[in-house]
Write a structure and sequence with these properties.
The protein has 14 helices and no strands. With about 375 residues, it is mainly alpha-helical. The chain folds into 3 domains: about 80 residues, no CATH class; about 35 residues, no CATH class; about 160 residues, no CATH class.
Length: about 375
């Protein structure tokens, strides 16, 4: 057989191969487009609940070691264990809020009684105004002209826009209902994440290997370590700071010590914010109790914040994530700015993934 006789058959095979290659590329493109559309549709449908799902994932990552240890030690079924730990997380989150709500209701009742009496007889100038280092005379004069006479409350209410007040009340009520629903969805998602956690982890590892190779699982482990390190270094340390400062507020007879203690713990989750809460408590103590109480609060608060921020947090977070504390700090601040409270965990997790990728690329031999 001559070359001219073999050529048509060879051309046909090559043409068929090119056609199959084009078809496979078209199928790959269509599959990628379909996946992108499905993922986009899923994100759009769940957009209102992404925060709840993210918090559920963070809680699941945080309690997973305790959850698995509890199941192995006490041989409890997965359903009971998941329900128990979900309830525990709910109690830990809601208990401080319930204490604050009870304290606020008690204070509100006293405030309403005080406002009723003050509206009937007027408000005398507080003695603390006279002790102010500057501006005391001006404040006392304004107070006498506007608040010391009977009926000042009615005059003030006449100037209030009641329509705007009702709108604000409706917005606050709707927001409270919305956040309650999100919290319920968060706990429900947490229950199922704990119940099917092993299956979800196995499937996630398989998908990670298929998409990113062996390094995908390592990056995922770094992200999980950053979440746990952030929980230990921020939340638990902040709770410790809040408990210590609550004891200080009680000893110095600062008004509303539980409220200020909770405010200090919440502020301590954000770097450098605890000093603001402690300073506010010291200011209130200086006005109501005396300068000595304020000095004690500031002195002990400075020691607690310095020790927590310079020794405890860097040790807990840095040892878990294996990255410099300055990157953790930038991740926390940037995360809070972008994602609010959720950014406390999302920011360091993203920084951990970036640092892991950077170390992987920098350690690989360069192709020259």
């Amino acid at each position: 057989m001559t070359d001219s006789q073999r050529q048509p058959g060879l051309d046909a095979i090559l043409a068929q191969g090119a056609s199959l290659k084009d078809a496979s590329w078209r199928q790959l493109g269509a599959s990628a487009l379909a996946c992108a559309l499905l993922i986009g549709a899923g994100v759009y449908i769940l957009s209102g609940y992404l925060h709840a799902l993210a918090w559920a994932l963070i809680f699941a990552v945080a309690v997973w070691p305790l959850y698995t240890r509890f199941r192995r030690r006490y041989h409890v079924s997965s359903e009971v264990s998941a329900l128990l730990f979900t309830t525990l997380v709910g109690v830990i989150v809601l208990a401080p809020l319930a204490l604050l709500a009870v304290d606020a209701l008690v204070e509100l009742r006293q405030l309403l009684d005080y406002a009723r009496d003050a509206g009937e007889s007027g408000l005398p100038v507080p003695e603390a105004v006279q002790r102010l280092p500057f501006g005391g005379a001006w404040i006392a004069q304004w107070w006498t002209e506007n608040l010391s006479h009977a009926g000042w409350a009615k005059d003030l209410l006449k100037q209030v826009n009641t329509a705007s007040t009702r709108e604000v009340g409706a917005m606050v009520g709707a927001n409270a209902i919305r956040r309650t629903m999100l919290f319920i969805m968060c706990l429900l998602s947490l229950f199922f994440l704990l119940l099917y956690g092993e299956s979800v982890a196995s499937q996630s590892r398989a998908v990670s290997h298929r998409l990113f190779g062996a390094r995908g699982e390592f990056v995922a482990r770094q992200i999980i370590a950053s979440v746990r390190g952030t929980l230990n270094g921020l939340v638990l340390v902040a709770i410790g700071e809040g408990l210590v400062m609550t004891a200080v507020y009680l000893v110095t007879h600062t008004p509303h010590p539980i409220l200020f203690g909770a405010l200090t713990a919440f502020a301590a989750m954000i770097p450098f914010a605890a000093a603001v809460a402690i300073g506010l408590a010291a200011l209130v103590a200086a006005v109501t109790v005396g300068a000595a109480a304020a000095v004690i609060i500031i002195a002990i608060g400075a020691v607690v914040v310095f020790f927590a921020d310079h020794f405890v947090r860097p040790k807990l977070i840095g040892s878990a994530t294996k990255m410099p504390f300055i990157l953790v700090l930038l991740g926390i601040l940037g995360g809070v700015e972008s994602f609010e409270l959720l950014g406390l965990f999302v920011g360091p997790a993203i920084m951990a993934a970036l640092v892991s990728l950077w170390r992987d690329l920098s350690s690989a031999p360069a192709d020259i």
